[in-house]
Amino acid sequence: MAKITLDNLAHSYSPNPKGEGDFALKELNHDWEDGQAYALLGASGCGKSTLLNIISGLLHPSQGRILFNDVDVTNAPTAERNIAQVFQFPVVYDTMTVHDNLAFPLRNRGASAAYVAERVQKIAHMIGMEDVLNRKARGLTADAKQKISLGRGMVREDVNALLFDEPLTVIDPHMKWELRTQLKSLHHEFGHTMIYVTHDQTEALTFADKVVVMHDGRVVQIGTPEELFETPAHTFVGYFIGSPGMNVLNAKVEGSRAYVDGTEIALGANYAPLTGKVQIGIRPEFARLSGNGEGLPVNVRRVEDVGRHKIVRADFFGNEINIIAPEGASISPDMNRVTFDAKRVNVYANDWRVEGEAA
């Protein structure tokens, strides 16, 4: 297990980067705690896999250092970093049995036969492959092979970190849930430092102690699922986390009031004068339809009943506003206004959240 430090880290695939725009990974300075389970979450191309490959040693950064437990490993090859990595697509030895694939990392390090047998049996049970241990990997389905890859990554107990690069892409949906649960159990049992790359917010939020949200090559927030939901540090976090994501509206902010196209909206805090692009953000869960003439005037376009609740899709002068209403809520034609819970409204300047003072 290891604390992982990213010190002034950045990477460009261009041999002569001329500016920040040439960097696939913008400058990072973070300490990732020993024994924590992290998810790297973001859209395709945001730099998640680049960062993971730098941590594993498959890629050398353009600048900065990687430290494991305060030891500089920037120039150390992957084999010396004592990590296990599972990739997006299966990497197995087709000519070996499932048992021998799982045993390979242990045998390669001289583990005793008894220990190998014990660990292989335990991991095979975790990934649901006890009944095929003596079958050759060749001929197995893609999701079965990926379970072998996962098992081989998990079989060692002595690694500094376990790295997963979108490992459940080829796994069927039911098995995805089971494997995420098993990974979580493994983390609780052994306390490995785990980093899990995904573009799926459900995977990230159900797996990780803390989620590292990346956007355009930059880490925009590291937080618990609750923190990402309640106080998104960047408008991208608000948009990307949640279904539907956070409503973001251009606004003018004066003290404890915001004005959106002339309509006054109460805020739960006082704010100093803001410059640049000023916006407010409100989760659909904290927006309410009303017909009493208060709030923003909207045009309800459609109502989607998703079983547990209703999603109201409304339009405010060309801006989409989403509202989540209880399953039993009655939505009438005269409900053409939307109000917000003042304490749940976040304020942003140039996409970054601004902390207000108590009102």
Automatic annotation (TrEMBL):
Key words, A-Z: ATP-binding, Cell membrane, Hydrolase, Membrane, Nucleotide-binding, Transport
EC code(s) of this entry: 3.6.3.20
Top EC class of this enzyme: hydrolase
UniProt keyword annotation of Nucleus present: no
Record's keyword annotation contains ATP-binding: yes
One cellular component term from this protein's GO annotations in UniProt: ATP-binding cassette (ABC) transporter complex, substrate-binding subunit-containing
GO molecular function terms attached to this record: ABC-type ferric iron transporter activity; ATP binding; ATP hydrolysis activity
Domain ABC transporter: 4-241
Family indicated by similarity: Belongs to the ABC transporter superfamily.
Name listed for the protein in its UniProt record: sn-glycerol-3-phosphate import ATP-binding protein UgpC
Upper taxonomic lineage: Bacteria, Pseudomonadati, Pseudomonadota, Alphaproteobacteria, Rhodobacterales
